[in-house]
Amino acid sequence: MRHLRHTALLTITTFFIIGCGPDSPSDSKRLNPAASVSTSFESFTVEDHGGMPFLSRTIFFDFYQGLEAAEGEDDKGLASQLRTRLNVLMGLTQSDEDPTTYVAARNPFDLLHYLINTDQIATFNDGKRLMRDSLESGSPENYNTPANNAIIRFTELAGEDGSGPGPDQVWIYPLLDWKTNFSQLEPRTSVVFRSAQFIARPPEEDDENPAEIQSAFWSGRFDGDNFSATGYNRPNASNFNATGRNFGNVDFFKILTGSEYDTLFLNETSGITIEGEEPVFICAQIDYSRDEVRVAYITDPEADTRGTNADPSQCPNVGSTFTYSSEPVTQRQ
């Protein structure tokens, strides 16, 4: 199949800057404060607790709900199948009471974002403070872990039997990057970009059900005027892409400004059926302003998935298509 190689919304350039410790004082040009992290947790699972809506800020929360067909509409059985696929991909625990949502998430990026949003890791806080200082001074800055030979490593203690954590109980992120960007035209605007990369450890040879994500990358764009050095910052747009072990590749675009929409691409996929056929390519796009889901799919492995749509964040005009009205989703995050 001639697949469209979806490029991330945000091109990340690594600046190799001589770094210093995270407690360095602010200068007219601060040095990169990125530092290694090695932290253990009882569990990697993210759940709502303490009255705080942590799950509503996970990557697929809106999309998971937005797939639900409105009364009388026909989704051709796709919504439930996509949720099942996301459960496997992202370690989601579907709600028994409401199958249109989930009550827990265990995956590398929802955990990383949770830790950034809740200010639990000192060097992550340094990164956010560097961005806020940069926005206030108008001088571009960059927090970048590879430039300082820094590695982020999380270890899950749950289920250890004395032999050490298993492959899916050690999550390693070779890249975490923040940078600011300022427009050169008036009115002058500012943007913060954040990106991160995850690479899984190889599973045990006798593991019949390894974690689906083999490697993944996330990038997001934030409005500089509203960026905070503490707590949660909502991205204006983000892109998540992952290489799976068994079900192909995933690309997910989330647009939270203007014409709000989410788009999921499944490439070289299998195991999902639509009207008796098993597609190798599926694109599902939710238009939240119109409460509508558009689906495009291809069953021919040799078919071109690119189409003529120049916007890689929207479904191409290829293959078989259908649309259905969906249940509304409010207060997207």
A few lines on this structure:
The protein is of the alpha+beta class.
**What is the N-to-C order of secondary-structure elements (H for helix, E for strand)?**
EHHEEHHEEEEEEEEEEE
The number of strands is 14
Euclidean distance between termini CA atoms: 35 Å
User: Which blocks of ≥5 consecutive residues have pLDDT under 50?
Assistant: 1-28
Structural class: alpha+beta
- Percent in strands: 25-35%
On the 0-100 scale, what is the average pLDDT? 89
Tally of individual helices: 4
State Rg.
20 Å
User: What spatial form do the alpha-carbon principal axes imply?
Assistant: globular
The helical percent reads: 10-25%
Largest sheet: 12 strands, mixed
Biased composition (Polar residues): 306-333
Region (Disordered): 303-333
Give the topology.
Blueprint: E1 37-41, H1 61-66, H2 78-90, E2 92-94, E3 102-105, H3 108-117, H4 122-137, E4 142-144, E5 152-156, E6 170-182, E7 190-199, E8 213-223, E9 237-244, E10 249-255, E11 261-267, E12 281-287, E13 292-298, E14 320-325
Kindly list the characteristics that best describe this protein.
single chain; 333 residues; alpha+beta; two-stranded antiparallel sheet; 4 helices; 14 strands; disordered N terminus
